[in-house]
Amino acid sequence: MEAWLEHLITQSLEWALFAVALVTFLESLALVGLLLPGTVMMASLGTLVGSGQLGLYPAWAAGIVGCLLGDWISYGIGWKFQGPLHRWKYLKKHQKMLDKTEHALHQHSMFTILVGRFVGPTRPLLPLAAGMLELPVRKFLPPNIIGCILWPPLYLLPGILAGVAIDIPKGAQSGSFKWLLLAVVLLVWLGAWLGWRWWRAGKQRDWATPYLPAQRLRWLAPLSLIIGIGSLVAIQFHPMMPIFRQLLTKVFVG
């Protein structure tokens, strides 16, 4: 799959945009998104944006189209085949996750659809579950559209940062700066992820794990957030940072 996408991308701009739409479509499609390494693929496509080979806004638009198609098809499948789906053995393997999703949709449908778009395991299940519950279209579409608009650039962002970093002119400090930048991105991501787990563990106990119990998250999540934010502030004073910001600005404003 990844080799085929690489072949498409190298052909032309149109094929690269098609690849973005295809990945976002499959990542959003019911159950398929659970098997597809869509995050890695989106990051790879993001490097094309960061290096200037692909425009951010055309890629963003292609991502929105793929996302909406995947979600709406999943929603339609859930609505049309809710009976057989409940009896499907493969779906029963993910029954626990599906039950959580259905419960969240009953409690806070709009919030769940919007936030669930950014959570890997629930992303390909939410539209399907919404259709199976016969959630009215008027409740499904607004948060779904908002989520599909905001999601593509967020998932392209790691690749964009990597692509911009690759384009930094070689110099005495460029090599070390790229490693520092990678470390900062990982620290910020880890802090945000642990913060998310801490917030969810406070609402649902089954989000806690033996390795990350609520008691440990209570101090680990804030500490990780502080370290991540601190490292992000500190790297702003690196001598290579003005060059990086200039290249990054070109990606967004041309």
UniProtKB/TrEMBL annotation:
Q: Give the transmembrane ranges.
A: 12-36, 56-82, 140-167, 179-199, 219-237
Boundaries of every VTT domain copy: 36-159
Q: What is its main location?
A: membrane
Checking Pfam families in the record gives: VTT_dom
Name the domain of life. Bacteria
Q: Which GO terms of the cellular component aspect does the record hold? A: plasma membrane
* Subcellular location(s) of the protein: Cell membrane
Is Transmembrane among this UniProt entry's keywords?
A: yes
Q: Which UniProt keywords apply?
A: Cell membrane, Membrane, Transmembrane, Transmembrane helix
- InterPro entries hit by this protein: DedA-like, VTT_dom
Q: Does the keyword Protein transport apply?
A: no
What is this entry's stated membrane topology? Multi-pass membrane protein
The record's listing under PANTHER family reads: INNER MEMBRANE PROTEIN DEDA-RELATED (PTHR30353), INNER MEMBRANE PROTEIN YABI (PTHR30353:SF15)
Concerning its family, UniProt says:
Belongs to the DedA family.
What name does UniProt use for this protein? Inner membrane protein YabI
The gene that this protein is the product of is: yabI
